[in-house]
Specification:
2 domains, four-stranded antiparallel β-sheet, 4 helices, Gyrase A, domain 2, 186 residues
C-alpha cells in the first residue's frame, strides 16, 4: 500500500537548514567582528606606545638642547677667559715699567755718581745727574750700555761745575728702553 505522508517534512528540513545557515553566518560575522576588534585594539595599543616613546624622546631632546646651550655658554665664557688671559700675559711679557728700569739703573750706577732726574716717555729715557769726574760718567755710560733694558745710550751734554768747592761734571744721557729677552730677565 501506498503511504502518503501529509506532514511537511521537506519544508521543516528547509527551515532547519536555513536556521543552521543563519546561525553559522551570524557566528562567522561575530567571529570576524571580534577578530577585527582585537587587531584594532592591538594596533591602537602599539600607536599609544609609539606616542609615549616619541614624547619621551622629545623630552630628552629638550633636555639635551638645554645642556647644549649651557655647553655653548661655557665655551663662550672659556674663549673670553682665554682672551683675557692672553691679554694679561702679553701685558706681563711686554711690561718694561719703571720698576725694572730703576732696578737696573741702581745696579749700573757707580759709587761717585748721583742722578738728579729720570724721565721715561714713548720708549726712550732721559737721565740727568752729577758725577765726581769724567771717568765716573764714562763708567756709568759703559755699564748702562751693557744693561739688557737700555739700548742706544748717548751722552747729550757733559759740563763742568763747582758745588761746595768741589769740581763736578753735570751730564744728560738719552737711551732707548727695550724689554730684555725672557732668558736674560730671569
Amino acid at each position: 500500500m501506498i503511504h502518503i505522508n501529509l506532514l511537511p517534512v521537506r519544508a521543516a528540513q528547509k527551515k532547519e537548514k536555513l536556521r543552521s545557515q543563519i546561525a553559522v553566518t551570524i557566528l562567522a560575522l561575530i567571529l570576524t567582528i571580534v577578530a577585527c576588534a582585537s587587531v584594532y585594539a592591538s594596533l591602537l595599543f602599539k600607536v599609544d606606545e609609539l606616542k609615549d616613546e616619541i614624547a619621551s624622546k622629545e623630552a630628552r631632546i629638550g633636555q639635551l638642547k638645554k645642556v647644549l646651550g649651557e655647553v655653548a655658554a661655557f665655551k663662550k665664557k672659556k674663549e673670553e677667559l682665554v682672551g683675557k688671559l692672553d691679554i694679561l700675559s702679553q701685558l706681563k711679557d711686554g711690561k718694561s715699567g719703571p720698576v725694572h728700569l730703576l732696578d737696573e739703573l741702581s745696579l749700573v750706577l757707580p759709587e761717585k755718581l748721583w742722578l738728579s732726574s729720570f724721565k721715561e716717555s714713548g720708549g726712550s729715557v732721559a737721565i740727568s745727574g752729577v758725577g765726581l769726574n769724567e771717568d765716573m760718567v764714562a763708567l756709568f755710560l759703559k755699564n748702562l750700555e751693557k744693561s739688557p733694558y737700555y739700548k742706544n745710550v748717548e751722552l747729550q751734554v757733559i759740563e763742568q761745575s763747582t758745588q761746595a768747592g768741589v769740581k763736578t761734571n753735570k751730564f744728560n744721557v738719552v737711551a732707548k728702553v727695550e724689554a730684555p729677552p725672557k732668558a736674560a730677565s730671569k
